[in-house]
Amino acid sequence: MSPSRMLGGALGIAAVGLGWTSLASAEVPLGEAAGWAVSIDGRVNAFVSHVWGDNRPAGLDNLNWVGFNESNSPGQADSENQLRKTRVRSGYVPSTLGFNVTKTPSDNFHIKGRVEVGIQITNIDPAFIGDPTWMEPRAVYLDLSGNWGSVHAGRDMSLFPRQNLFMNYELGHAYGLGFPCSYERMFGGACGHVGFGVLWPDFRAQIGYSTPKFGDVLQISVALLDPRTVPTYNWDQTPLPRVEGDAVADYSWREGWGVKGWGNGFWQTVGTAVDNVDPMTMAVTREDYSQDAYGVGGGLQGSFGLLKAGVSGYTGKGMDGFMTFTFNPIAIGQDNTLLNRSERRFRKTSGFLAEASLTWGSTWIMGGFGKTFLDRDPTDPPIETLEAPPLIRSQTGISTGVFHRIDSVVIGIDYFNARYAFDARFTDPDMSGPLEPTFVDSKQTVHIVNSGVTLEW
Fold this sequence. Notes:
CATH class: Mainly Beta
Number of helices: 2
CATH superfamily: Porin
């Protein structure tokens, strides 16, 4: 599938310490000393996740992160080329434990520190002996704030496009699983709608500033983030940090009624060096090349009593359907005749997600529709190229679920329908030559049902 082990390690948002604005439940105080207050928060969850559907289309053997099925094992699909897999695992949010320390030296100076650890309950690989699992420090940061704004420094969720992801959390999969991200080798949490209308804003080292809320409505944040490379075709040079920002306007006219709108974006340049050979003199010269990755996104979300609804979207270059600066080869043009890797360019991608939830008492239902588009690029092979891998063009996700809260425990069941559409694959099965090609329509549909329980504090 599109996210392999690296993405599986990154995905699944934290219910606590979500960027600079927390969606956490109430923290549990542990004590106070010398002006410091210490508290903890977290969650533990477990889900049964069952997957069934089509195997990846033929011709994708060399692009094994495109489409669903991250494994190269010929034993994954049955005799009818169908997938069927069940795992017991963590949900959209992995099990987490967060430690917070706060201090207020003066009325206009507040100090906060946070260390948060994420844990996947299942084994990384079902074949491993010794039962190793995934655990990592997801957020480790300090925050200094006053009426002048706040300075945020450490490891935390990136700004682009975190608000899009928060919408999927609040309206959809906070206590569910959605798309499983990975099912063969598991590291972090699941995907929810990530990959199907939403991008993942990874956890990165950063230093940033947020303004105070203007009129108690609008807040603007900017940050410099540790840059990320694109290992596909060795785009490894990062002369400058990644620059990100977002602006959020949040207005509520009474409890349970309000609207929120936001916009976000990022920019980063990456480079590589290539040895070029002069065909006349055979002299070798090393030349530097660079290209920019960028993205913009935004959304609108409203709470209207029992009903909550929202829509978000993004567009940019330097990403696949799941994340920015991906290891996935599909993020860059796939024309194998371009031997100089500097000629391959980032493809344009975009996506949107619409979600809604309806609550009555302690029970709520949700539904969502999201789609990601991956455009063809001039550095892709022509669509009529014989036997070229079918390039993925869209990923469509349809989700629904029902959840019920009992005090600090939430039980739920959700369904996700993942549909992949590819360019037609041109082939010549009777070996009659390039003038007699036929084409095969390439697509894939996968169904996922998840059911589980979450404890939070």
